[in-house]
């Protein structure tokens, strides 16, 4: 079914226009082609030549749709105009993303697939002109892929202070050693942004071990992709375990200043969390529509599902979940756009609330669809796994709850109450 979008009263007409044009593309070009666009990624359905033809057709189709997105001026909405994007601010993005993520995989067709989009934003903010020319432009133009390599197998990802990957300066080079895992897009990436502790024992930096991001091309000697980690019962995935063994890259590959790595990661992850919530809202909207649509036609025990009170409960609860997740995400996006001082509380709140609400909505939609709900014929099973992962990725929920509580308590300790209107 098509997404139903009309202008939001009181919203900037330019943003309403972006929403309507995005919905038009989603409804006319992407939803009717979802099967052909992503079919070859569902293993086991096609054999031999048929599979190869479907793969070619899906690649062609993706390129055709990307061209239409470009023509419509909707490409890379998160990037500044001078870097080929739309230059939307966070609030405008929230209003656009909830529509485009209604369709499976559509964000990639609008030039905003993670982790490339996050890496592009970090390169825009921290990259030198040379780094932008070498890494950012090909990333934006889709000629290169990238990964963000921070989490380590043997240290808690929840606690960034535990990172042990080391970059030691030798002359004009960094020598990197470390063991990362869950580096997404690792199979296709042409380069990684690697979070390291930088040491320069004989230089002015000293052996300080300050957090630093370094760009490492995948083809560099010593970068060893150990495996795509199998997840949720699948044999492999593009979330990779990677060993960096005496990897040498020029010091010009330092992204930002030495010691700025933690701040750059926070910038990236803060923005990423809001993007993930915006995407989740669009997918919840889709799951909600699928659930209600099915309830109108599926007959069980002498009546339609829509008339059964269990299902009416699902519909009402899901409406509340989608709308509250949506409004909290828009509120957080507004705070990011305005640079609100309590931004981190709002971002942590959606990081915890939205994936959980997403999980509940998809779970109900799967239940209403019965066996079909867990099949690959519908996008629900994939959404379910995404929602589960989001409770861990971007920092697990517990860490965000602790941060929220600390921020809130701090206000009270300094004699203020919490200002929900700020
Ligand atoms: C599909 C997927 C994709 C990912 N992509 C990337 C990527 O591209 N790049 C990258 O660098 N990383 C990536 N990650 C890694 C992700 O960021 C980490 O898994 C996450 O930060 C948690 O770290 P951890 O797995 O080491 O869990 P740990 O830090 O070991 O934490 C385990 C659990 O402990 C609990 N916990 C943690 N702290 C506390 C506390 N203070 N109090 C109570 N309980 C606590 C939480 O329940 C948490 O889930 C990805 C992960 C997944 C699953």
Task: Explain this structure.
This protein has helices at 13-30, 34-38, 48-71, 90-100, 106-109, 116-126, 129-140, 261-297, 309-338, 343-369, 371-374, 380-389, 397-413, and strands at 146-149, 166-170, 173-183, 191-200, 206-217, 223-228, 240-250, 254-255, 299-300, 303-304. Helix 4 (90-100) runs parallel beside helix 8. The chain contains 13 helices and ten strands. The model has no long low-confidence stretch (mean pLDDT 94). It is globular and about 80 Å long. It has three domains: 13-112, Orthogonal Bundle (Butyryl-Coa Dehydrogenase, subunit A, domain 1); 146-255, Butyryl-CoA Dehydrogenase, subunit A, domain 2; 263-413, Butyryl-CoA Dehydrogenase, subunit A, domain 3, CATH 1.20.140.10. Helix content is 50%, strand content 15%. Strands 1, 2, 3, 4, 5, 6, 7 and 8 form an eight-stranded mixed sheet that branches. A two-stranded antiparallel sheet has the order 9-10. It is α+β, with helices and mostly antiparallel strands and 422 residues long. The site of flavin-adenine dinucleotide has 20 residues, from strand 1, strand 3 and helix 13.
What is the fold's blueprint, element by element?
Elements: H1 13-30, H2 34-38, H3 48-71, H4 90-100, H5 106-109, H6 116-126, H7 129-140, E1 146-149, E2 166-170, E3 173-183, E4 191-200, E5 206-217, E6 223-228, E7 240-250, E8 254-255, H8 261-297, E9 299-300, E10 303-304, H9 309-338, H10 343-369, H11 371-374, H12 380-389, H13 397-413
Parallel strand pairs: 1-4, 2-4
Antiparallel strand pairs: 2-3, 3-7, 4-5, 5-8, 6-7, 9-10
The chain binds flavin-adenine dinucleotide.
Flavin-adenine dinucleotide is lined by residues 115, 148-151, 156-158, 182-184, 239, 389, 392-393, 395-396, 398-399, 402.
């Amino acid at each position: 079914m098509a997404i139903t979008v009309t202008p939001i009263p009181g919203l900037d007409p330019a943003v309403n226009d972006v929403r309507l044009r995005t919905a038009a593309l989603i409804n006319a070009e992407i939803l009717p082609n979802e099967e052909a666009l992503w079919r070859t990624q569902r293993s086991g359905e096609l054999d031999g030549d048929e599979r190869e033809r479907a793969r070619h057709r899906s690649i062609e189709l993706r390129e055709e749709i990307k061209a239409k997105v470009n023509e419509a001026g909707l490409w890379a909405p998160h990037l500044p105009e001078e870097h080929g994007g739309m230059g939307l601010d966070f609030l405008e993005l929230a209003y656009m993303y909830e529509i485009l993520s209604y369709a499976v995989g559509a964000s990639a067709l609008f030039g905003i697939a993670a982790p490339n989009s996050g890496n592009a934003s970090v390169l825009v903010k921290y990259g030198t002109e040379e780094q932008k020319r070498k890494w950012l432009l090909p990333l934006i133009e889709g000629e290169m892929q990238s990964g963000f390599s921070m989490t380590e197998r043997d240290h808690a990802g929840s606690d960034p202070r535990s990172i042990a990957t080391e970059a030691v300066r030798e002359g004009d080079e960094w020598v990197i050693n470390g063991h990362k895992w869950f580096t997404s897009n690792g199979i296709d990436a042409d380069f990684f942004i690697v979070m390291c502790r930088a040491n320069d024992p004989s230089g002015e930096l000293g052996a300080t071990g300050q957090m630093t991001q370094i760009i490492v091309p995948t083809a560099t000697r010593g970068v060893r992709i150990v495996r795509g980690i199998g997840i949720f019962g699948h044999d492999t995935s593009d979330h990779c375990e990677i060993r960096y063994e005496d990897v040498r890259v020029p010091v010009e590959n330092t992204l930002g200043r030495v010691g700025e790595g933690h701040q750059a990661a926070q910038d990236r992850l803060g923005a990423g969390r809001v993007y993930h919530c915006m995407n989740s809202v669009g997918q919840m909207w889709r799951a909600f529509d699928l659930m209600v649509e099915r309830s109108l036609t599926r007959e069980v025990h002498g009546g339609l599902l829509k008339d059964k009170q269990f299902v009416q409960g699902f519909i009402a609860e899901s409406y509340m979940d989608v709308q509250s997740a949506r409004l909290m995400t828009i509120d957080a996006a507004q705070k990011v756009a305005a640079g609100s001082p309590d931004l981190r509380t709002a971002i942590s709140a959606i990081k915890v609330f939205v994936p959980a609400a997403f999980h509940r909505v998809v779970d109900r939609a799967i239940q209403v669809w019965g066996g079909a709900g867990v099949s690959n014929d519908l996008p629900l099973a994939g959404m379910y796994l995404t929602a589960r992962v989001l409770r861990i990725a971007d920092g697990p929920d517990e860490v965000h709850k602790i941060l929220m509580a600390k921020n809130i308590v701090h206000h009270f300790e300094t004699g203020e109450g919490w200002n929900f209107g700020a």
